[in-house]
Fold these 2 entries.
Entry 1:
Amino acid sequence: MIQYFILTLIPFLIIVSFDIFCGSRILLKKRFWKTIGVLGIATLIFDTFLTSTPIVLYNQEKILSIKIGTIPIEDFIYGFSFALAVFVAPSFIKYLQNNWKVILACSRPFSWINTAYPFALAAFVLRGKVGMEDLLLVLFFLFPYNLLVYGINDVYDYETDKLNPRKNSIEGALVEPVYHKPIWWLAMALCALFLPIIFNLGGWALLLLFLIGILNAIFYSAPPIRFKGVPILDSISSSLHFVFPALIGVLITNHFYYSLYVLFAFFLWGIASHIIGAIPDIQYDKKAKISTVATFLGKRFAVIIAVFFYCFSGILLMLGSVPMIFILLLLPYCFNAASFLMDKRFSMLKPFRYFMYYNLFYGFVSTMYIIWRYIV
Amino acid sequence: MQFYTYLSLLLISLIGLFYFDYKKKFVIFAKNGSSLRDIVFASSLFLIIDIIGVVNNIFYSNPKYIIGVHVFPGVPIEEIFFLFLFSYFSLIVWRFFK
């Protein structure tokens, strides 16, 4: 369960980091520290009254043992963050007004469902009921997680994105440098907000796994690792973006071993789909001297590998005793991937567009099936 | 009467602040009317933190000293006044040092 220290530390870090990176640097002003001095004294008087009367009571197991009189030290962190929040509020409101359109666009709203759905499917179906924390995590995998994956990608790919006509569409945004810092900050702040929920659900082990997932999302695009610049690793890392939400869903319901085949099938599907996504960019990537799995394998071999992985994921689903409809629905992915070889023109966007829309269709049909089979 | 202890304390403090602000025109009574928006914004943020604290059984109010009206299970109406008071006082001090 969450401790008071963690509950105060997270807003403290978020507000302080906002002030440093995106705000008006109130922390550097003498006037702020004078104000904090006065507020500290006021808190000491007012809080001593509240805690000694006692009007406010604390669960002793959930606070640090450090106290000033009868006041837990966490109350001072709370007060500090609260005061700073009041002072940075004008900059924060301005920040939202100036950046929300770009932030929304670079999170790829069209793809939100691709990460939220695997989590929701795993958590809701395996648990058999929906908890408040599950719903909050669906929210996380809808927007903040996609902002992390795609927003940071857009920040580090700005130079090459300028040459790519696929940008500024549902497949991505061209994000001007002025927005890079706000995107970074918001992505990290939103992730931090969800850490206590993850800790509540699965303790340190799940928190560690969650952090690995976050790091994978960051270092897919960010230096010094930048997985997307290393062929093969780019596909693995990209696939893990989608497996990660499902894995979290499976772990919080304690169905890991039961779902192993399905998770691995999903992982292979993710690799194949990443390859499909990289093929239309071959020319731009070669021009920009970027190595990807598609430039490394070449168009023809990349398509063969993608079709093979789609088929292999179908076999794994069979081994996992998944209903046949889910396996048959994989066939159009294979045909779509193969159609890259038939497209003689340079523009190979069509199969990738079909792939994006077909994902929605797959999700719709499988949801209807689950509702019919398990709920009705 | 004990039930009104916390609420009375908060209301008296708030009336004092309003009076001071009315005289000095620092925050809500200043020409720039955005201060109330900042107070509401920060208070809403910390109301969420209070709710998380109550849900996780980290802190709670002593039923002896509150009137018993709750805005959320475990979060008394007094908490709204407290959040308003704290943010209002913070802004007054902040403007005072300008």
Entry 2:
Amino acid sequence: MIGEFYRAESVEQALSFKQQHPRAAWLAGGTELVSVHRNQVEAVIDISRLPLKEIRETADGGVCLGALVTLDSLAAHTFKDSRLAAIASAAACVRNRNVRNMATVGGNLATRKASSDLTPVLLVLTAEAEIVQVDGTKKKILLKDWLAAGDDSLLLSVEIAAPADHERVLIRSFTRVACDLALVNGAVRVQSAGGKIISLQAALGCLAAHTELFDLTCSVIEGDDEIALAASLRKELATKITARDDHRAGAEYRLDLAAVLVSEMAVAALREGREA
Amino acid sequence: MKVNFTLNGVPRSFDCEAWETALQLLRRKAVLSVKDGCNCEGTCGVCAVLLDGKLVNSCLLLAPQLEGRDVRSSESLALGPDLNVLQQAFLETGVVQCGYCTPAMLLAAVELLAAHPRPTRAQIQDYFSGILCRCTGYEQVFSAIDLVVRRVQDDPEALFEHVEFREDLRHIGKVRRKIDAAAMLRSDPLFVEDMLHPGTLHLKVLRSPHRHARIRSLDVTAAGSLPGVIFIATPENVPDVLYSGAGQGSPEPSPHDRRVINRKMRFVGDRVAAVAAETEEIALQALELIKVDYEVLKPVCSLDDALAGQGEPIHQEPDIHWCFPIGADLSRNLAASNRGGIGDLEQGFAEADVVIERTYRTGHIQCTPIEPHVVHTWMEGDRLIVSASTQVPFHLRRLLSVILDIPQERIRVIKRRVGGGFGAKQDMVLEELAAFVTAKTGRPVYFRFTREEEFVASRTRHPTMITVKIGARTDGKITAVDMTSRADTGAYGVHCLTVPMNAASKSLPLLRCPNMHFDIEVFYTNNVVAGAYQGYGAPAGSNALQTSIAELAAELGMDYMEMIRKNHVQKGDRLEILKILGEGQEGIPQQVSSCGIPECLSAGEESLEWEKPSLQDAERPWLKRGKGFAIIQQGSGLPGLDAANALVKMLGSGGFHVLSGGADLGTGLDTICAKVAAEVLNCPHESISVTSGDTDATPFDVGAYASSGTYFSGAAAMRAAIDLKRRIMDAAADMLGVPDTDLRLEYPGVIHAADGRSLTYAQIAHKTQSGTGKGQLIGVGSFTTESAPIPYGAHFCEVEVDERTGHVRVLRYHAYQDCGTPINPALARGQMFGAVLKSIGHTLYEELKFAADGRCLTPGFMDYKIPGMLDIPDDFRAETVLIDEAMGAFGGKSISEIATNATAPAIAIAIYQACGIWMRDWPFTAEKVFAELKKNTTEK
């Protein structure tokens, strides 16, 4: 049970609290911590007032998301580079507005849950995490590495470079009802040229314990035959991952869904590329 | 620690704990509009507040996080006693039913309209997406928002466009305010949890971790010595009385098969012990100190296990009691059985050109009222007072009297506003335990289920397996139907006979078939307890029968509509089959007094363009569309079993107070009583107030179940009003010195004599209550009957199946129902929308799942999904057709339960039309549909 509450007004103060109370948990939007972990946490450091709520376009055409940007703000954001709109779409996958109003970019990532709606799109975009360690050291590392580390560092922002001209990024999510954790969610980054896909990278959530990144074969993507592509991807995915089997969905079905989502995104990306 | 924030415009400073949620703090500080429906999971949204203008769940905020913020709850909306424009729009459009989620919905509308003064449908759905409502089906929210937009943006006098019925009547068939809605919109304290006594003990239950076990030893020493623990109930100190918790008419057709706490555990979640303590935290801490040694027994895990004769007998008490035989055989865990029929089945099948036999299955689904089960008990002198969220206050009093050995006159049950019932609150699920502790300790007790307890220890719908053998001639005439039902009642037998019986009694009489037979067996298992749920067994029976007819039509190559029109029941038919489909005793055959099936079929046929195939998506050939429909019936109470009573008192002002024994669950029953009284007494609707469901203040009524409200409780109120009107005319005749035949009553309650003199109700009231007249005029009405009108309907839908994933989307749903005279059209539509959306959830995704050891895997809204506003059909209609009906209060039949019966078969038929597969195992989850599609492809 939470016994202590520390309200941080600055990053420095937040770190100071953390140094004094190493077991204290960071509290941002609270949708995960208060809901799921309230009884396991002894102390919290409220970081919701820190000045990390900005969405900033970077000089190279990318974007920097403050860790405390709410999912609702992100979902409503219009990106200069329309190919980054997939980030907003991913935030909008949290269909429950009450939760979207509270939940933050940092919180959605820091839970390191396979059902995170932002993680797949940020992984395929090779996002970087700006973090500050408890001792005050700031650094930028690949988001992928930060997620894998699972340490106590404080996420300050996530920086995403603009995709190359011939690249498209899309997201999809499959849920039972609108407001639900996905049975499978994912994002793809597709490079295409001459009306053909050159490379297909996918990040898929909810298939396993963590969101997984895959480089997938795209040999059958000659035309726009989603069904044929899905069948091919289904076989390939089965060799690359053992899907989870739980009360929400069986493993085989999850793989079927994943293949369908990826093929749909790939074909859509191909069409976008042609139109562009 | 201190937290300072602005609450509803006023700077406030409160002490709070670090662990405390904003929800807990606000409720502690009497901001009672914030509710808890999901135990801080953050999934139901009824705790919502506006935080700096944004709608957030207060259960997901720690109280200290409110520091310096602006917090608005729905208490801020009302303007003194008056409603603001938003609340008024909600009132007029019939959005409010039970009222539990209403405060959160109002705040969602505030945030919406601040951002989008003229919102689109999609924006409305988005802003309401975080709030779960189990009553309304959300559709009328669009009307409310439209009305408020027009009034704010265009014309303050803008009116709500609505359909009205019965030009011959002033109030009946017209839209009038729901009598209890204003208080709900103002967030007044109305629910059990809003009115707790100081010094109340908190009750918590230790539940069995085993499916089937005997308690070898139970040590509560450590728990009992914990400071703050006041009492611990165990199998050893509870009353040694066997009972059934079923809230049914006495003698009930349910076995008396349980004690308050049993020595034998029969499902994961069964009561082991209960701790009453000064705080909830202490009670929970004490539970962890209780030591139990179990002897684990072999369980019966499913209906299939029970049918295979696996596991040990679950009930072996020598003193188990049945009020009358219901066909039980405890040696094979058979809780109840019945069979019978009409005509000659063999001959009927011999006459058929085509005979098919199909089996349909349903699983565990849960009622999920957003307000969980809750009770507050205390003593007043030697009287036990029970403040309950119940559908059956009078049955509850009777059951408590028997269990606690307290005479009924020393028990008062007060039904508060009920935050959704749907059948789950037809049973005594937790009240007897709290009442027992209060009787034992003399202390007030509060017992509220967590959401998880609601899933595992409340009531579910019976899982069923129904096999239908059905035959027809090539011309489509059905010649024989044989329905075999097997059901799982779980650990105890509440409603074990009646629910499965309804699968037959609310489906077979829809057909004009001379040869019909049913065979029902209901088994005990070591599963969660099944019980009453809106529709009883009718949805399962309706699904099996209607889908089998559609399958038969497909075999015959005949249009399903043509087949239904050839076979459905019609006005004037005599339903002999009802004689053998009684509630455990012989039933009463009924004459069909009115039947709106033809009108409902025509309405749906036209609106959904039944004769035209669905338009397919050429761009996305994997999306397949199809249409389906089903005809339906229910009942209007239980003739020969149900009873209702009411009083109408004339007040000193000339207004009236109706005292109805009926139990309004948010369904609008109190409003119906007010409307029939106002119609009979020819006075304004606003002149009537209603008190209902209080065993001290109101006369007896069986309560709200079996669709009895409008027909029984409404008729009792009507008879009381007629009786009072006679007394008023008598008094007026005396006062004017003329025979009452010379008097006529005119609106608004003025009595005119032939000589031109007149008296107002206020004058008559003054005279009769001033010491010289006849005394206060009170009308008395009782209603029992041997006959009841049957409501009918037809629901149509169009679905889209994604063959790549099995996902089914309901594009259009048009529900048409014959409820005789719609007494209150807006509320009637609300009942239909709510029941249909709930049934869409049941049909497509709602499912309780259990681990092999019996643990519930879906104990919250995160896992057990119910429809939100984003899940409603794009084109969602609910309409009543006016059918002339002679019985009942102004010809009103029931409206709500029936609306749960069509969805599964209509969707199953639409799926078949779309992609050629028959779904026979509901819910038709995407995964199951996908598997069936795959199987179909492989077979081809």
